[in-house]
Design a protein that fits this description.
There is one protein chain. The strands form three sheets. The protein has a seven-stranded mixed sheet with strand order 2-8-7-6-5-3-4, with helices on both faces. A three-stranded antiparallel sheet has the order 9-12-11. It is built from 14 helices and twelve strands. By secondary structure, it is of the alpha/beta class. It has two domains: 143 residues, Aspartate Aminotransferase, domain 1 (Alpha-Beta Complex), CATH 3.90.1150.10; 237 residues, Aspartate Aminotransferase, domain 2 (3-Layer(aba) Sandwich), CATH 3.40.640.10. The chain binds pyridoxal-5'-phosphate (PLP). The site of pyridoxal-5'-phosphate (PLP) has 13 residues, from helix 5.
């Protein structure tokens, strides 16, 4: 029996490392090991009741049929209204596409914007799925490094320096997964102006737009849409704001032409996002007061965990870790421990950490930075304290012989 022949596209695809870590951690826990999971990238809070109630009402009132591919008109209006309320920009429903999560929004945008021979610039460290999404469009990723010393901030001149004639777009994520870095406004403006001058597009992924610390404001490309309406695709989601990862509900904001193209693409792939989830998201977006309350509660708790995790990690000799400005990850440079632990890089480091301490974390090479490891603080404070304690003891211990 011969295995089926895979397309070159599928054969070249790397599975997501973040889900691979989750699988390994689960398998280890199933053998009875007390695993501390700092790998997961999703809120550990429940979806707020008022949002769940809107979903239940949708089922009970029989809203179980196909909707418009681009989403229910009322939800598209509510998403446009969010941008008016939060950023003072005028959008109409024709500028909004409802998707099955921010992931599908970025994926659709890549599919309609890029093709073979194109390059798409990604600031590194990048979210794991960006390079594969670019490759699945036929284009190639072009990596633009950012540095811990400059707080992992994207710098427009680095993009301009590395870009070639073939660079047709850029994907920017702020606050960033895995570093938490928030782009500076003047850098963002320069990147959009660079796109304008080059007839390129920027996909601006603001999945973590409500999760910034120390009162830092979210810097969004939404405010640049008016001046550069054809250069920007914004992508966002209900996933983190309302702890709705499993509901699969996100959106893209762009020019009418781009939204139409993405909707056509989506009409032949998944059609509409779940009708139930759309109603739940409508309930969420229609109640800014309860939303602000729920977000404030989560943010305060993430803030406590951030302090505990980062101060604990940074105190370990050989670990460098900054306080992230947003999102819920600590991205620590652990490369000074590689020699003492006799590991070749972040993947081996995380495997050893998991098997020898039961702490799950995601290797930085999944994000294009092999010196680092991502620890999620979307985990209870007690798990973070326990996990950091185990990491500190392990880092200080001599290497076990095999
Ligand atoms: C930067 C970034 N973009 C997009 C997503 C995907 O979001 P969704 O679950 O809404 O598809 C994630 C999820 O972790 C993310 O970190």
């Amino acid at each position: 029996m011969r295995p089926p022949r895979l397309s070159r596209r599928a054969a070249a695809l790397a599975p997501s490392s973040t889900t691979a870590v989750a699988r390994k951690a689960k398998a280890l826990a199933a053998t009875g090991v007390d695993v501390v999971d700092l790998g997961l990238g999703e809120p550990d809070f429940p979806t707020p009741d008022f949002v769940g109630a809107a979903g239940i009402a949708a089922i009970e009132s029989g809203r179980t049929r196909y909707t418009d591919v681009a989403g229910e008109p009322a939800l598209r209006d509510a998403i446009a209204e969010k941008y008016r309320r939060e950023h003072g920009i005028a959008l109409s429903r024709e500028n909004v596409l409802v998707t099955a999560g921010a992931k599908q929004a970025v994926f659709n945008a890549c599919q309609v914007l890029f093709e073979a021979e194109d390059e798409v610039a990604l600031f590194c460290p990048y979210w794991v799925s960006f390079p594969e999404m670019v490759r699945l469009s036929g284009a190639s990723p072009l990596y633009v490094p950012t540095e811990l010393e400059t707080h992992w901030k994207p710098i427009a001149s680095d993009l301009a320096e590395r870009a070639t004639e073939r660079t047709r777009g850029v994907i920017l994520n702020s606050p960033n997964n895995p570093t938490g870095a928030v782009v500076e406004r003047e850098q963002l403006e320069s990147i959009v102006e660079w796109c304008e001058a080059r007839d390129s597009c920027m996909i601006f992924d603001e999945t973590y737009d409500r999760f910034l610390y120390d009162g830092r404001p979210h810097v969004t490309a939404a405010s640049l849409r008016e001046e550069h309406p054809d250069r920007i695709v914004l992508t966002g989601a209900a996933s983190k704001t309302w702890a709705m990862t499993g509901w699969r509900l996100g959106w893209a904001i762009a020019s009418r032409e781009l939204i139409d193209a993405m909707a056509s693409y989506q009409s032949h792939s998944t059609s509409n996002a779940s009708s139930i989830s759309q109603r739940a998201a409508l309930g969420a977006l229609s109640d800014p007061a309860q939303t602000d309350e729920a977000v404030a509660r989560m943010l305060a708790e993430y803030g406590r965990r951030r302090e505990t995790m980062v101060s604990g990690l940074a105190a370990i000799p050989g670990v460098r870790c900054l306080l992230p400005e947003g999102a819920f990850y600590a991205f620590a440079d652990v490369s000074a421990l590689y020699g003492a632990k006799q590991v070749a890089g972040s993947a081996e480091f995380c495997e050893r950490l998991l098997s020898e301490t039961g702490v799950a974390a995601v290797p930085g090479d999944a994000f294009g930075e092999d010196d680092c490891v991502r620890f999620s603080f979307a985990a209870p404070l007690a798990s973070i304290e326990e996990g950091v304690g185990r990491i500190a003891a392990w880092a200080a211990a001599p290497v076990r012989s095999a």
